[in-house]
Amino acid sequence: MVHEAQGPGWRLAGYREGLKRAGIRFDPALVADGEFSYESGFAATDRLLDLKRSPTAIFAANDDMAAGAICAICERGLSVPGDVSVCGFDDTPIARHIYPALTTVRQPTREMGRLAGVELLKAIRDRAAGAMVVVPYALQLRRSTGPAPAR
């Protein structure tokens, strides 16, 4: 679930690149628009679960949307991760406080803020000097993901 109005769609691009590397065909029917909120994650998951061949895993654009996805899945009587695995992004506090604890991608937000400040100062001094900086991320494996169910 992603929201294309947010920036240039980097999270969707990353999702597509991950699928490509894994040899999995991109299916636009499996992408549901959202607004980085719990409510939009719930609504997007409802749409995905209504598909004739619903997904066995959901990668949400952020942890709030992932929490909404878990609620939508459970309200249908399905289990996380038994029927559907859920992964979020950002490793916000909600990821550790919901049940099951959310698998998510942690970003070094403090370092990102510091680097953004450095690049901003460079760009102020010389308009051509600012640059895109890549920072490391880490997958935080928790209980919301598991093997795909047999179909």
From TrEMBL:
Keyword Membrane: no
Residue span(s) of domain Transcriptional regulator LacI/GalR-like sensor: 3-145
Highest classification ranks of the organism: Bacteria, Pseudomonadati, Pseudomonadota, Gammaproteobacteria, Lysobacterales
Coiled coil: none
Protein name according to UniProt: Substrate-binding domain-containing protein
Matches recorded under PANTHER family: LACI-RELATED TRANSCRIPTIONAL REPRESSOR, LACTOSE OPERON REPRESSOR
Domain of life of the source: Bacteria
Keyword annotations from UniProtKB, A to Z: DNA-binding, Transcription, Transcription regulation
Pfam families per the UniProt record, alphabetical: Peripla_BP_3
